[in-house]
Design brief:
This protein has one domain. The chain is built from two helices and no strands. It is elongated. Helix content is 33%, strand content 0%.
Length: 48
Amino acid sequence: TAFVEVGYDYVLSYEHEDPVMSREDGCEKCIAFLKPLIIKAPLEKVWW
């Protein structure tokens, strides 16, 4: 929501520094965590 409110619609980076988990597994887990948080509907005017 904060990104949408300020008009940010670009890249979101993450940092992976787990020495035990592979980069591929870390990336997949990151995507799985963030995907449900993506707001797809257009911004509605706030009422407050």
